[in-house]
Amino acid sequence: MSAPSRPLLPYLKAAVAVAVWGASFVATKVALAELPPMTIVWLRFAVGLLVLGGFVVARGEFRLPEARDLAYLAMLGFLGITVHQWLQVHGMQTTEATTTAWIVTTIPVFIAVLGVLFLGERMTLFQAGGILVAACGVLLVLGRGDIGSLGLERGGSVGDMLVFLSAPNWAVFSILSRRELRRHPPARMMFYVMLFGLLFTTPWLPAEGGLAVLPDVSGAAWVSLAFLGVFCSGLAYVFWYDALRAMPAYHAGSMIYLEPLVAAAVAGVVLGEVLAPAALAGGLLIVSGVWMVTYAWTR
């Protein structure tokens, strides 16, 4: 007897979400050419909040959080939106979109390490080897084949390091999110996380020029902002969580490997970024290492 076929739609939704997030790094670079970093973040999540909130209401999932959850949701918003986006967007002022995507792929490695250190989870020698492989890949990507270029005095490496810090930050956010995911549907949790993140981001606006620069923004920048808000911070989250409800988590997680490939392809067309051999080799090491770390979860 043949195994029952799995519905295709959840896999398509997961693939679309990952592809959109891969392209988000390119859209951010386009917007950064004309807008201050935190203005991009604020507009992106203001639009994303409206889109995500619309889906939550339409699906009948809206409910005000309990008072005991407010502080925790606020902390998640600060880490997952304000801090995470500050690191990535400021880092991307000097690092490439493709480099950012390769580094972000290491997030499962940091989640695994945090699980061992703070949740008592076990790690095999095979997984530990995967961490070493991924680490070598990160060094190749950051150093562009020259490990000596990792010093902060070299051009662009400060941005690389900021982006790199965003990976463990998102891992911490993911671990801490588990509590609220037991209390709320994923989309509703992200709605409140996004709301608090937007509130914490607002005070940064005056320091970087705020919204005063918008009248001079080009059509390309507006398209990038719309893409970041509607698709990356709105629809992609809805698609991703819909997929997670209908398919094994490790199937969805494996699609993360598509993210840097999409980013590299789009960055090559839109930004003219060239995928250097060292970056490709480092990226393949990162993907291999992440696969080794997450392999046990798929057994």
Shape: globular
- Written as H for each helix and E for each strand, in order along the chain, the element string is HHHHHHHHHHHH
**Distance between the amino and carboxyl termini:** 22 Å
Give the tally of structural domains. Answer: 1
Number of helices: 12
The biggest beta sheet reads: none
- Which percent range fits the helix content? over 70%
Oligomer: single chain
Mean pLDDT: 89
Low-confidence stretches: 152-156
Number of strands: 0
Specify Rg, calculated over alpha carbons. Answer: 19 Å
Task: Describe the structure concisely.
This protein has helices at 9-32, 37-58, 67-91, 97-104, 107-118, 125-143, 157-181, 186-201, 219-246, 249-254, 258-270, 277-294. The chain contains twelve helices and no strands.
